[in-house]
């Protein structure tokens, strides 16, 4: 056996042992979780039933009080009591009570209320227990059987207390409110005092409730999942809701009156000789007032294997129990355990086969892995080289563009240029061309980043109206100069927000709108509409331009393919639509186009609707924000920058703040030397410096304790997300990419110096600093 084979065999044995151990642990955890969940279900069912019974008894007591305190029954009761007092005993009393007008009057007053509250019969007793009013003539003039059966509750009623009994049984006849006579009736009795005007108890109201109508449903409404039944029992062991149990076909021993009782149950159950069955022990525990549960199956009164929980409610004087079919409760567990064991066995067999084939193919696998590693290393090296190239290209092109745009605007605002129309137009051409070049640069770089998966997408909740308004604002001037009318046909405020990256979504919409303007006819129109389709927002932009040959529509999404438009003099890079397609697809949406030559084109895209509850965020910085001179009054600002042109631009910007001192350092070393000799309030720091980087400058500053607590803002031509992240990780207070946008510079400086947003002076920015510089 070779070394590799020995190692493979040992590995197989170890993995097998670990898998067996994992199976045992998984089974243990599953059983614990299943027991926990089952117990929670049983206890929840029991608690729900107990709560329902408590609320039902409280409601019945309130109903009885409402009826027994009716003012309209006091006079008839007093009259009937007087008849009882005057007539003595015997048949004459029963007849006088039955024929008394007050008897009928009392029935007329009580019957509607008893019917409303669900009572099926009543009787009124004198304090000595003699029946003075009832639907059953046989109960008039004689001592009520209740005096023998429930003397304690009658005594409580005479003290002013109201009581609702447990379910009872009567073997004889009873008369309902509707006059029907019933035999062998199950009933619940409500016993309430009837007060006279002086609040003394003069009589007792007995009201009968049919358990099947109100009481028994309490034990089926609380059942959940595979529960066989819930049941109640009293202190004697009599099961109080036996009709529900009898409906299941259960016929255990019975007590007097035919009621089911634990006292006569004989449930055969296997177990230790001489040991009581679990059901018997559970019953004794509950009757002893102990609440408990059993997740170990036991045989119930029907002979089924169940698990259950029980409790004793002292306030109600009854016990409550819930039982669940054991097989149903643990059916999922048995299936899961079987599946785990089957998967483990299959996995072991697979590992054995894998070990066999791995032994034969180990050399080939090693060779393939070597080739894969080489290919992966080459791909990673190529991606890294591309990233380095993009970063370098961004830095090298943005740096001179910063000077072109910055000085171009400074020249345009010079008085002698503003007074010379021809020179002013020429300067405008320079600025416009620089901005166009910056736009093309951004498009190329972002498409390249997207192509290598480096373009960051940060989705958030965005209002549709914000997305549309911001996009229209960006192309509004362009459309007006081209005499193009943009019509928004949808109430964007009524649409739900979308889940998207607001910057990328604006780029997509701006690209499509810009094309709709560029390739439209003079005096043409653009229609913008949106609607909700399932979980998506559908946005449609339709123009009245020249249209596109349907055979060439697929070419639109190819980068740098302008379908011959490069020969027309219309500006463009041919990247916008290719970029838009990739961005939309990366945000899980779709994009498409239809076109009719000579009529126009319709571009559409979809974005997912927001499912988050967080408030929407607008990321666009407010336009026209200019620093309050008070923020910089008396401050000294150090600008560490090796490019003289960039220093001159910053110098011209800070010329608007004569009370602020701006000093320069050409290298990181000079900046540290300067900090050793003077105090500064703010540091503007380039990252790519000739001696060492801005990050190293910041690290050494901290080590030497130079300018402690002074905020640092990084200003760099590297506009990548990685650079912004590195700046934050270095603990700097702000990040600005070149070419510098004045509103962002103002907001960042103000936040760094005041801890808040940029303070507005209430005036527009100085002319030389209104645009991107």
Protein architecture, described:
The protein has 23 helices and 22 strands. With 773 residues, the protein is of the alpha+beta class. Helix 12 (331-412) runs antiparallel to helix 14 (421-451), helix 12 (331-412) crosses helix 19 (644-654) and helix 15 packs parallel to helix 16 (502-518). Helix content is 47%, strand content 18%. The strands form five sheets. Strands 1, 2, 3, 4, 5 and 6 form a six-stranded antiparallel sheet that branches. Strand 4 (168-175) and strand 5 form a beta hairpin.
List the helices and strands and how they pair.
Elements: H1 3-68, H2 74-87, H3 91-99, H4 101-116, E1 119-125, E2 131-134, H5 146-149, H6 151-158, E3 163-164, E4 168-175, E5 181-195, E6 201-209, H7 211-214, H8 218-221, E7 227-233, H9 242-246, H10 278-287, E8 292-299, E9 305-313, E10 318-325, H11 326-329, H12 331-412, H13 415-418, H14 421-451, E11 460-462, H15 464-481, E12 485-488, E13 498-500, H16 502-518, E14 525-533, E15 536-543, H17 576-586, E16 591-596, E17 600-608, H18 629-632, E18 636-640, H19 644-654, E19 661-665, H20 668-677, E20 682-685, H21 694-704, E21 712-716, H22 721-729, E22 734-737, H23 742-754
Parallel strand pairs: 12-14, 18-19, 18-20, 20-21, 21-22
Antiparallel strand pairs: 1-2, 1-6, 3-5, 4-5, 5-6, 7-10, 8-9, 9-10, 11-13, 14-15, 15-17, 16-17
Helix pairs in contact: 1-12, 2-3, 2-4, 12-14, 12-19, 14-17, 15-16, 16-17, 20-21
């Amino acid at each position: 056996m070779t070394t590799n084979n020995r190692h493979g065999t040992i590995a197989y044995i170890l993995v097998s042992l670990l898998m067996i151990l994992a199976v045992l642990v998984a089974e243990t955890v599953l059983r614990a979780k299943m027991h926990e969940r089952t117990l929670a279900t049983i206890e929840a069912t029991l608690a729900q039933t107990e709560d329902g019974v408590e609320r039902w008894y409280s409601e019945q007591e309130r109903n009885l009080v409402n009826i027994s305190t009716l003012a309209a029954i006091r006079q008839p009761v007093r009259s009937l009591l007087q008849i009882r007092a005057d007539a003595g005993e015997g048949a004459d009393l029963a007849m006088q009570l039955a024929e008394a007008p007050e008897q009928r009057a009392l029935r007329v007053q009580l019957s509607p209320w008893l019917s409303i509250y669900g009572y099926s019969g009543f009787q009124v007793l004198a304090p000595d227990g003699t029946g003075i009013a009832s639907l059953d003539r046989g109960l008039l003039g004689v001592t009520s059987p209740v005096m023998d059966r429930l003397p304690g509750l009658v005594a409580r009623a005479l003290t002013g207390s109201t009581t609702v009994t447990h379910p009872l049984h009567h073997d004889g006849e009873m008369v309902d409110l509707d006059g029907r006579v019933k035999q062998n009736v199950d009933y619940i009795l409500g016993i309430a005092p009837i007060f006279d005007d002086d609040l003394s108890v003069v009589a007792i109201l007995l009201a009968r409730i049919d358990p099947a109508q109100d009481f028994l449903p309490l034990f089926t409404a609380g059942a959940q999942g595979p529960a066989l039944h819930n049941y109640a029992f009293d202190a004697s062991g009599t099961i109080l809701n036996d009709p529900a149990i009898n409906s299941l076909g259960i016929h255990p021993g019975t007590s007097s009156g035919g009621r089911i009782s634990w006292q006569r149950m004989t449930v055969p159950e296997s177990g230790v000789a001489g040991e009581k069955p679990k059901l018997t022990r559970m019953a004794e525990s509950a009757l002893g007032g102990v609440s408990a549960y059993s997740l170990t199956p036991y045989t119930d009164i029907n002979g089924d294997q169940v698990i259950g929980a029980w409790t004793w409610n002292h306030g109600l004087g009854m016990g409550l129990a819930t039982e669940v079919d054991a097989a149903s409760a643990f059916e999922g567990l048995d299936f899961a355990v079987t599946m785990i064991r089957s998967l483990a066995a299959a996995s072991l067999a697979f590992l054995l086969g894998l070990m066999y084939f791995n032994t034969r193919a180990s050399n080939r696998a090693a060779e393939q892995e070597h080739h894969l590693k080489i290919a992966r290393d080459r791909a990673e090296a190529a991606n890294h080289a591309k990233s380095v190239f993009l970063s370098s290209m961004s830095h090298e092109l943005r740096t001179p563009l910063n000077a072109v745009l910055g000085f171009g605007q400074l020249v345009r605002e010079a008085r002698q240029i503003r007074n010379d129309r021809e020179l002013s137009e020429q300067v405008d051409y320079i600025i416009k061309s620089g901005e166009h070049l910056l736009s093309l640069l951004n498009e190329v770089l972002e498409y390249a980043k997207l192509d290598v998966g480096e373009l960051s997408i940060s989705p958030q909740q965005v209002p549709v109206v914000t997305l549309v308004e911001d996009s229209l604002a960006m192309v509004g001037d362009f459309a007006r100069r081209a005499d193009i009318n943009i019509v928004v046909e949808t109430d964007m405020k009524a649409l739900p927000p979308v889940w998207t990256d607001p910057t990328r979504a604006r780029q997509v919409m701006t690209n499509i709108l810009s094309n709709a303007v560029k390739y439209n006819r003079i005096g043409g129109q653009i229609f913008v509409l949106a609607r909700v389709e399932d979980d998506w927002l559908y946005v449609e932009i339709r123009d009245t331009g020249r249209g596109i040959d349907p055979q060439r529509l697929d070419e639109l999404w190819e980068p740098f393919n302008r379908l011959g438009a490069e020969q027309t003099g219309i500006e463009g890079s041919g990247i916008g639509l290719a970029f838009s397609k990739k961005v939309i697809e990366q945000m899980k949406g779709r994009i498409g186009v239809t076109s009719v030559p000579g009529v126009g084109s319709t571009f559409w895209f979809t974005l997912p609707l927001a499912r988050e509850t967080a408030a929407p965020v607008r990321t666009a910085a407010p336009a026209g924000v200019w620093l309050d001179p008070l923020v910089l009054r008396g401050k000294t600002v150090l600008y560490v920058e090796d490019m003289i042109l960039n220093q001159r631009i910053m110098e011209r910007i800070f010329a608007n703040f004569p009370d602020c001192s701006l000093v320069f350092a050409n290298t990181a070393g000079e900046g540290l030397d300067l900090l050793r000799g003077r105090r500064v309030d703010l540091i503007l720091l380039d990252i790519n410096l000739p001696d060492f980087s801005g990050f190293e400058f910041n690290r050494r500053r901290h080590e030497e304790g130079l300018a402690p607590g002074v905020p640092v803002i990084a200003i760099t031509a590297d506009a990548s997300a990685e650079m912004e992240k590195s700046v934050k990780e270095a603990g700097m207070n702000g990040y600005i990419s070149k070419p510098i946008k004045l509103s962002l510079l103002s907001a960042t400086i103000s936040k760094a110096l005041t801890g808040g947003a940029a303070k507005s002076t209430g005036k527009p920015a100085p002319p030389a600093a209104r645009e991107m510089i």
